[in-house]
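Reminder to self: tokens first, then the designed residues, so the page reads top to bottom the way the pipeline ran.
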């Protein structure tokens, strides 16, 4: 039995709907610049997945449940069909939505993720997030960064995680995300989306320097999405939309226009 959650979203622009789905530990806020650019052409709905951003904290992080959340949002907004763009975990949610409800997806764009199961590689991130919480919060963003740095070396990742900080009732900074629910559902997040074949247009766009979409994944992509196109953006990694926003926009726009 699927349990749906009423998702938070932002909306701008007019025209055919385009849903944008962020990745793990992200939110609609991460897509603010590109959402504005896409809104010159589309009615853009950027959403916060369950346990992320401003959406509710609930148990369960399965892809069928998260896809059902997105479908419920489409119903709430009276959107019969939309283009759907998802990055990383959000790409898996987008794939699951297309596999389960193909009649609701016009074109699918999957950014730097494949329909495969991945290993656990967020232990340092989770340790850094809990370090801030276990300290009772942080008095400043610099304080939060120092707490995270004891567990996580990469400044860029710490800065990305810091977008989830908000001021709590005690005046300290704490996490906006449902940290316990994400940790409990982490095994589900690592799983592959499953379902019947999606016999419609799809674009798989990857970063040249990323390890998330590899040659050995092409068989599974082809099996589930036989009418897909593949694009590689040079000189960028997993955060291709942040590292090469103009090139990313151009590639997606060309596909949606085709």
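Designed residues (258 positions):
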């Amino acid at each position: 039995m699927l349990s749906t959650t009423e998702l938070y979203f932002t909306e701008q622009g007019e025209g055919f709907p385009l849903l944008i789905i962020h990745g793990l530990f992200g939110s609609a806020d991460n897509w603010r610049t590109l959402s504005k650019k896409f809104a010159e052409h589309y009615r853009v709905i950027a959403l916060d997945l369950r346990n992320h951003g401003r959406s509710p904290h609930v148990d369960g992080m399965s892809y069928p449940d998260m896809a059902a959340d997105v479908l419920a949002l489409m119903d709430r907004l009276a959107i019969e069909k939309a283009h759907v763009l998802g990055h990383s975990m959000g790409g898996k949610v987008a794939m699951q939505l297309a596999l389960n409800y193909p009649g609701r997806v016009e074109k699918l764009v999957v950014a730097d993720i494949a329909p495969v199961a991945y290993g656990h590689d967020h232990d340092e991130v989770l340790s850094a997030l809990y370090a801030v919480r276990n300290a009772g919060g942080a008095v400043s963003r610099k304080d939060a960064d120092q707490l995270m740095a004891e567990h996580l070396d990469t400044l860029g990742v710490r800065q990305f995680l810091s977008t989830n900080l908000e001021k709590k009732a005690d005046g300290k900074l704490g996490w906006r995300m449902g940290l316990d629910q994400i940790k409990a559902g982490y095994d589900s997040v690592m799983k592959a989306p499953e379902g019947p074949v999606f016999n419609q247009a799809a674009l798989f766009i990857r970063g040249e320097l990323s390890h998330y979409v590899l040659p050995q994944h092409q068989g599974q992509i082809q099996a589930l999405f036989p009418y897909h196109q593949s694009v590689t953006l040079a000189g960028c990694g997993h955060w291709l939309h942040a590292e090469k926003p103009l090139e990313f926009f151009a590639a997606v726009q060309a596909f949606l226009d085709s």
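The mean pLDDT is 96.
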